[in-house]
Amino acid sequence: MAGVDDAAGAEQETGRARRVRVGRPPLTERRKETARLDIARAAVELFAERGVEGVSASDIAESVSISTRTLWRYFPSKEECVAPLLALGVQRLAKQLREWPTDKPLLEALQRGDWLEAEGPDTARLVLDLMRLTRTEPGLQTVWMRQTFAAQPAVAEVLAGRAGRERPAMEDNVQAGMLLAAIHVAVRDFAWRQPGEADGGSTLADALRSALAVAVRGLPL
């Protein structure tokens, strides 16, 4: 885990070491994010194998060759270690919505679903493994909910901009919350389904499209 090693080493440098390394660029946010993501992937692998209770913070730290103390600098709890992996999807979604052409409906961007697998099949597999774990691990489910709705302000800003508003109104905030809730339910139901169940479609993209169709129709009031 080179990214984690580099990040941890840079953060633990003493003042003397920093003086010796004058002229070398400081640790970037990008490197920190890479380190956090490496830890998240390792944590999910361990949780899937042993369950959350069967994994300690030191187990996670050892798997990425850092100290437990360094791990706590990145995350306040072992459950929080998965947060970067959970955040990937909604971050990609928010980015795609911001960059989507204004002459095309946003629904097309949402229904494409390619943002779900932007990090590659291995990451997509880990995310689904993590989603399955949330069914029986309330600590992970709490982290997932928080990460999902952390994108609400960014999505609301996109909706406001397309409506010609400088800042999100309540309408934009409600619509952003509805979209994220629909996505959350689609991913959850797909990950939690039993063998043979096909409610919402046979693939995650199908489940997403079905959930968004319900959100677009609105409440039956």
Automatic annotation (TrEMBL):
DNA-binding region: 56-75
Keywords: DNA-binding, Transcription, Transcription regulation
Domain of life where this protein originates: Bacteria
A molecular function (GO) term: DNA-binding transcription factor activity
SUPFAM superfamilies for the chain: Homeodomain-like (SSF46689)
Occurrences of domain HTH tetR-type (ranges): 33-93
Annotated region (Disordered), positions in chain: 1-25
InterPro entries: Homeodomain-like_sf, HTH-type_TetR-like_transc_reg, HTH_TetR, MftR_C
Name of the featured protein: TetR/AcrR family transcriptional regulator
